[in-house]
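For consistency, the fold was encoded as tokens, which produced the following:
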Amino acid sequence: MKSFVAKVNLDRHKASQAQELPPLQISFRSSAFMLPIQLGKLNGDQAQDALMMMLTKRGRVETANYRMVELPTEKVIPTFVEDNFGQFYKTMFSRAKPYNGVVLEYAWDMQWCDPHAADPLSRDELEELGVFWLKNSDTSGQDVYVTRIHAQYTQKQMSEDLMFKVTTNKDNFQGRYIMTKPYVGPLQCEAGKEYVETMRRRLREEAHTLGELTGWAPRDIEKRIRRTVPASYW
């Protein structure tokens, strides 16, 4: 096992335009596919996050010694969440993650294009990330599968280092949250009245879904929906 210590010049960091540190890359060979996390837990008195992006030739990466659950996905939620999506995601994640376990946030075959996903990584990006098995062709991305795993733990949680295994599962997965804005113009015709009734039911379903995902109080959700839709819809 190898370890390293990085020293950061905070004065230079504050003066730079980029406020995020570039990643440190190390290369090593080992028969054990794992990530040591115990040493890093010593200097944190609150929950810490570990985000793992893994690229393989075969398929999805899973944890071998901890439970892994998929992030809740394909959920229709109220439009007001768009203005505070970060807080929504943090709250939802904290409820979805196992006490001793990890969450699958993203898993994608680089040969697969989808209008609701980001573009596949380019050859240059893959090589920069350390993919060494690319072929000399325009379809080199077909041999790469990306897995993003998110762990969050305190000093008392996850007493073992993270062990991983590569599977042959190439199914695509991503957390996806749908927000559809209701019509705000005049609705005098019969079809318009039906639309209003449909929208009322939909908004209540969205409120219920958001409450299940976050644990937010139903009254608070209702108040925020009322501020963003015409009064006739609620």
Observations:
- Helices lie at 10-15, 85-96, 123-128, 190-214, 218-226.
